[in-house]
Specification:
alpha/beta, 9-stranded mixed β-sheet, 6 helices, globular, binds 1-O-pyrophosphono-5-O-phosphono-alpha-D-ribofuranose, binds uracil
Length: 217
């Protein structure tokens, strides 16, 4: 088995927090309902977004408080776009939007072929001004990394240079692939799990995120 070590890679961010651990435990539980699963995915997405937006540029503004003028700071320019990888990525969009309500949303359609486990592309629609924004690609699962890596390649082909990837559960193999294929992209995960099984599912993981989010199984 390959030996993975991302500790010294400044592009890999394992976001550790007691609230994330707690919510992850419930998310993984086979008895968690579709409604709870959707709510938890949204909440963890929000916590990941807090970390992933730490370096957004600020501009100085003047604000009238009830008492005096204050020098304040606001996020500058056309800041952020959110790009869920369909379909499970949709479960994270509302969490990012709660923190960044003005973010525009693009969509990338990819699914893993059941036999080859390779990603198959079927849709890509990004905001018209995507290349002026930092795009946060969201997908709950980073397994082999094929889907995320292909999604990032599709985005780069449209001229976007500032890209971040937020995933809830990751496997070392997937993290390594994205870091190798896209060394310029920051990767944020709530969990780095043990490995993939023979069907390229993450262990211990949480099963099929899309099916659990949308109740399709
Ligand atoms: C899942 C998941 C990721 C992908 C991860 O999607 O949401 O997009 O698999 O696997 P990878 O890292 O090996 O590419 P899936 O293909 O099941 O499609 P769905 O979201 O439509 O259910
Ligand atoms: N996609 C999922 O939804 N779950 C996994 O464990 C791997 C890929």
């Amino acid at each position: 088995m390959a030996n993975f070590n991302f500790a010294n890679n400044s592009k890999f961010h394992h976001v550790k927090h007691p609230l994330i651990e707690h919510k992850l435990a419930i998310l993984r539980d086979i008895n968690t309902t579709t409604k709870q699963f959707m709510e938890l995915a949204e909440e963890i997405a929000m916590l990941l977004t807090y970390e992933a937006t730490k370096d957004l540029p600020l501009e100085e503004v003047t604000v009238e408080t009830p008492l005096e003028r204050a020098k304040c700071y606001m996020v500058s320019g056309k800041a952020v776009g959110i790009v869920p990888i369909l379909r499970a990525g949709l479960g994270m969009v509302s969490g990012v939007q709660k923190l960044i309500p003005n973010a525009k949303v693009g969509h990338i359609g990819l699914y893993r072929d059941h036999d080859t486990h390779e990603p198959v592309e079927y849709y890509c629609k990004l905001p018209a001004d995507a290349e002026q924004r930092t795009l946060i690609v969201v997908d709950p699962m980073l397994a082999t990394g094929g889907s995320a890596s292909d999604a990032i390649t599709m985005i780069k082909k449209r001229g976007v240079t500032k890209i971040k990837l937020c995933c809830i559960v990751s496997a070392p193999e997937g993290v390594q692939k994205v870091l190798d294929d896209h060394p310029d992209v920051d990767v944020y995960v709530a969990s780095l799990d043990r490995c993939l099984n023979e069907n390229c599912y993450i262990l211990p993981g949480l099963g099929d995120a899309g099916d659990r989010l949308f109740g399709t199984k």
